Amino acid sequence: MMEGTKLANEHGESRKSLKLLNLRHLGIGGRRRGDVANTYVDHYETRLLVVTMTTIICCFLDAAFTLNLLSVGATELNVFMATLIEADVRTFVQLKIALTSLSLILLVIHKNFTIGGMFRVIHVLYFFCGCYLTLIAYELYLFTLV
Questions:
Q1: For residue range 1-49, what is the model confidence (pLDDT) as tens digits?
Q2: How many domains does the chain contain in total?
Q3: How far apart are CA 52 and CA 101, in angstroms?
Q4: Which of 36, 37, 111, 112 is the most buried (most CB within 10 A)?
């Protein structure tokens, strides 16, 4: 770099003249545009945060509702989870939340990728969130039958 040369951003502004806190630091305004298929990103949309947090909250609710429904006579249909519940409730809750969280992290990281050239991973995230919301609605319905 030559002495006295200023680095400029895409708008021609000197980097030194930029504000300390730019709205893009907060995720407002976005970043790159264009072809993003099968690429990793360092900035995620707010809607992705909402979908991910909704799924995690539903996971917590599902664990709590499952334990409450089991206490009033319901049966766990998932053989793996039923075995965990019988062995140790704490392990059941921890493993359920850990598996869901790790799965969500992997899906969020790969949000721009496609599965088999047909489905975008972000749509899989939306699908899982919808499934969890449906499950919570069903469990709430089961509470009305008790």
A1: 445 555 555 555 555 555 565 555 555 555 555 556 667 777 778 899 9
A2: 1
A3: 9
A4: 111
Domain range for 99 = 35-145
- 29: tokens are 């305004």
Residue 84 has which token pair? 């965990």
Calpha distance 72→69 (Å, rounded): 5
Residue type at 101?
A: S
**Structure tokens that stand for 40 in this block:** 């990793």
96, part of any domain: yes
